[in-house]
Amino acid sequence: MQGGSSGIGYGLKYQARCISDVQADTDHTSFITGTLSLREENEVHLLRLSSGGTELICEGLFSHPNEIWDLSSCPFDQRIFSTVFSTGESFGAAVWQIPELYGQLNSPQLERIASLDGHVGKVNCILWWPSGRNDKLISIDDENLFLWSLDCSRKAAQVQSKESAGMLHYLSGGAWDPHDVNAVAATCESSVQFWDLRTMKKTSSIECGHVRDVDYDTRKMHILVTAEDESGIHIWDLRMPKVPINELRGHSHWTCAVTCNPEYEGLILSGGTDSTVNFWFASTSSDEFTSGSVVASPTQKLDPLLYSFNDYEDSVYGLAWSSREPWIFASLSYDGRVVVESVKPYLPRT
């Protein structure tokens, strides 16, 4: 099933490729996003869904000095977030705080809490501790993985440990295992590497196509989802890592982003350079769907592709489920268009 969007739109002034759910805002459905302009002053937009769910309101607009290539909201403080940025010549990473009185200021400035210095090559992403309050951060560049300790009160970040993947490897991103906080998956060209943060050593890997994104299933242990150039989405059971347990081919070009629903097992979003967002309901085990999923009948056969949102005009690089209202998600296309949708109309009937 495919068609246009009935969602709520919001336009950024410049191009953009990253958006994040503001998980720590438990009173509102909020998202934060940032722009990617080489020549103009970049912006961070704090967006909030209205109480009636009919309007996307900009609650804060803040200047950011450089192009934003990665952005993640802090899971325990709604005013804190991280960015990876480029000056055009080099990459950097920092943790920022939104000013407390930003609603009363004409031109609020973000406060830089800490710079994550020490990277030599291109920084690719920052990962926050999966949930709850913790001072640990991970940053990944082309060749290295850093584990940081963040002290917001002292406005400082210290490297706790660092390890190199080696010059023959090219790290591009990663995900922190929500079921095992000592485990991190790092994407690396045609494989995903698994690292133990206690030893900072690689423990294993799975071979796959050119991986562009990766996410853990937050509801089920051992399940990992990868987005790949040529083969769409693969679902892996890490206890049986040689072959994927499910393969979803729904994009006509590169699959750039994938994210698992924070509450409902088997619900997955993917976005790609075919200007499409796909909404999937896919089995994450060798068994059929379980009673813990959104479909009660274990014998019901379903097309895993529930809906395709295909009226975007540019590549979709950013996807974020709302942790507060897990049937709502935000998408971001490269032309700076944010769309907030509800998947309720497309859920399978029991």
Task: Compile the SSE list and pairings.
Elements: E1 2-3, E2 8-11, E3 16-21, E4 30-35, E5 42-49, E6 56-64, E7 67-73, E8 80-86, E9 91-97, E10 111-115, E11 123-128, E12 136-141, E13 144-151, E14 156-164, E15 171-176, E16 183-188, E17 191-196, E18 201-207, E19 211-216, E20 223-228, E21 232-237, E22 246-248, E23 255-260, E24 267-272, E25 277-281, E26 305-309, E27 316-321, E28 328-333, E29 337-342
Parallel strand pairs: 1-26
Antiparallel strand pairs: 2-29, 3-4, 4-5, 5-6, 7-8, 8-9, 9-10, 11-12, 12-13, 13-14, 15-16, 16-17, 17-18, 19-20, 20-21, 21-22, 23-24, 24-25, 25-26, 27-28, 28-29
Family: Belongs to the WD repeat EIPR1 family.
Protein name: WD repeat-containing protein DWA2-like isoform X2
Domain EIPR1-like beta-propeller: 5-280
